[in-house]
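Encode chain A's predicted structure.
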Amino acid sequence: MDDRLIERTLRVDSARIRAYAEATQDFNPIHLDRSFAETTGMKGIIAHGTMSLNLIWQSLTATFGSDRAARATLDVRFTAPVRELDVLTSGGVRRNPEGPVFAVWVRNADGIAVIEGTATLAGVLQPGGDGERSPHPQR
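Encoded structure for chain A:
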């Protein structure tokens, strides 16, 4: 049984931030315009929060496959900004041995959580007879 999510890592740089802005059509200057971003409370460019959040989905998908990950729900908080050149790692641990809830996070290289919360899978996951994980309704 998977009690830990497979970790995923992302190096955030200006090219990746720009590519994400183009993919999402989110051209907020806090993400792209250094001169503007330095005049804000963030004191510099920050990455899109959803770019960092995607790492949790990548961890869920790597651990449980795309079908089960697609049925998960997240309840998270963005706790710190992500800066250019940050290296992020996502992960999670099961809250109790039989439950479908995982404590999840994205942390920077300094170990600071930039996202924290929970991921709840569609049911309790137990090993199946064919070597695959089988969802069983929570009781």
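The helical segments are 14-24, 29-32, 34-37, 49-64, 66-70.
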